[in-house]
């Protein structure tokens, strides 16, 4: 008998004649949305858990929420509440929001300058600085002095950081590193490159391990 | 790729030990942690059915309390907003698991079958029932519509071979909760190994490596924030 | 060429965007199955001949046909499975009752698969505890601001919101209402969410 099997001689069952078919590839694949993606609305959802100071114009006893107690609320007395509640109360004109300390033109200018000077990522004032700026400026801009300047400054800081992030992602890939330290990056920032960077790395990993 | 990060997990596993008394706030934090981990992990993680059950209880309890609240209560709307938020996290968490179960069903069931005595189950009883039904349903569908009409030697498809496995070599982002020394990261080239030390707050980015890694190192799961 | 028909099935789905479900191609499937039958019969007789008469020169063509058989099987299964995933997505989008035009595009076995899938999902959700379980096909997006702007599409009469306030839902009137109070009315077509 002529030997026709090249790569892997397979035991021949009565019915099957040969098996030199590429059966290794998985073919029942799914192309649903990538599992590891995170929607910006979800990051915003997480940001809404951050605490912010408000000055209520109503009084209300302590509220025993599942996630912890809030209040009591007294008119004119500042109190910390999660951003999701602050925004709702603000929407219903029940409070004034006090912007976080870092949401201040002078402080942000300093941060912007430092961010531009340093090669590394500088520490951010809040892990959700971008989302909080957006949320508070969109819903309570009348409570935030120099709202427009703040918007621009935060955007500048963000742009500088994203540019750095792109640069380092590029060198991470081209130098074929297995590990990168991404200290001081926020979830939203990582999110801008997550899908792209992880796909790229996984792809390159596959290509390389097949070569070997 | 494999043996790098396995085997030495015994000393930092206390994280997983059952606490008997947990405040509702801690419970919610646990749920959020499980949610984010599940969302970012390429593979199905161990089930947290006791957390799911407790959160469901909290929600049901709060809902029934709210039924009795008199109209116009300002607190009620605050409670409702919180319930909405928790229910979203819970649903999203369960959805994310179900999606993986459907995507990898033969492998998920296989792992469940080969699970050793005393090893925690990957799937909750409800998820296990769902996965089995999904398998049977899909298999009998393929048979009924096409396979049984094919030549006798081609009437089955090996689901394990046909359906893709989760890619355990994927890269992930991690946030470090506790300092860990000498974490071994294997670069692409075999001859060079990298030892790193990670401190709380660091966000190193490394491959998921092997499953054993995730068990060994629950503290450095993706995007867990230290909320202590 | 062998396997052309099978590839055509795959192409058909590939051309469709993710959410779409084209009509079940019963005819295409039948043609692939016929080709498989023919390939199989030819192989059976060639195998017998190769064995009994020692005709080794038949083996390459036997091998070729067998590859084609496997490829056909693979393509058909991939076609069917991809359709299942699309059908599954519909459950999450439309709920448990599919629109008639979608059902029209499904074969009997697919309808059966779908109804079993619905059952499995429903019993999973019921088993999650609480009185009625948890409908995880709801709450697909993170909850946003609790109050939303709505427009009234038809006269609905008086409507009481949680804090006891009663408002009059008149056609074309606009209101600022708690989201959870409006959801049902929006689904019923009484209110419409005004997106600013």
Automatic annotation (TrEMBL), chain A:
Domain DNA replication complex GINS protein PSF2 N-terminal: start-end pairs: 39-98
Keyword NAD listed: no
Keyword Nucleus: yes
Ranges of residues in domain GINS subunit: 102-203
Primary location class: nucleus
GO aspect biological process, one term: double-strand break repair via break-induced replication
Family: Belongs to the GINS2/PSF2 family.
PANTHER family: DNA REPLICATION COMPLEX GINS PROTEIN PSF2
The protein's name in its UniProt record: DNA replication complex GINS protein PSF2
Species the sequence originates in: Oreochromis niloticus
Encoding gene (name): GINS2
TrEMBL record, chain B:
UniProt xrefs under SUPFAM superfamilies: GINS helical bundle-like
Protein's UniProt name: DNA replication complex GINS protein SLD5
Region (Disordered): 1-21, 209-228
Domain of life: Eukaryota
Function, as annotated: Required for initiation of chromosomal DNA replication. Core component of CDC45-MCM-GINS (CMG) helicase, the molecular machine that unwinds template DNA during replication, and around which the replisome is built.
GO biological process, one term: double-strand break repair via break-induced replication
Keyword Nucleus: yes
The keyword Nucleus is annotated on this UniProt entry: yes
Every GINS subunit domain range: 76-144
PANTHER family, A to Z: DNA REPLICATION COMPLEX GINS PROTEIN SLD5, SLD5 PROTEIN
InterPro entries per the UniProt record, alphabetical: GINS_A, GINS_bundle-like_dom_sf, GINS_Sld5, Sld5_GINS_A
Gene (name only): GINS4
Subcellular location: Nucleus
A single GO cellular-component term on record: GINS complex
Biased composition (Acidic residues): 1-19
Keywords carried by this UniProt record: DNA replication, Nucleus
Biased segments, Polar residues type: 217-228
UniProtKB/TrEMBL annotation, chain C:
Signal peptide residue numbers: none
GO biological process: DNA strand elongation involved in mitotic DNA replication
One matching Pfam family: PSF1_C
GO cellular-component term (any): GINS complex
Location in the cell: Chromosome; Nucleus
Keyword field: Chromosome, DNA replication, Nucleus
Residue span(s) of domain DNA replication complex GINS protein PSF1 C-terminal: 144-195
Annotated ranges, domain GINS subunit: 53-128
Tree of life domain: Eukaryota
Major localization listed first in the record, in broad terms: nucleus
InterPro entries tied to this protein: GINS_A, GINS_bundle-like_dom_sf, GINS_Psf1, PSF1_C
Protein family membership: Belongs to the GINS1/PSF1 family.
Cited function: Required for correct functioning of the GINS complex, a complex that plays an essential role in the initiation of DNA replication, and progression of DNA replication forks. GINS complex is a core component of CDC45-MCM-GINS (CMG) helicase, the molecular machine that unwinds template DNA during replication, and around which the replisome is built. Required for correct functioning of the GINS complex, a complex that plays an essential role in the initiation of DNA replication, and progression of DNA replication forks. GINS complex seems to bind preferentially to single-stranded DNA.
Entry-linked PANTHER family: DNA REPLICATION COMPLEX GINS PROTEIN PSF1 (PTHR12914:SF2), PARTNER OF SLD5 (PTHR12914)
Self-association state and partner proteins as the record states: Component of the GINS complex.
Protein name in UniProt: DNA replication complex GINS protein PSF1
Native source species: Oreochromis aureus (Israeli tilapia)
Gene, per the UniProt record: GINS1
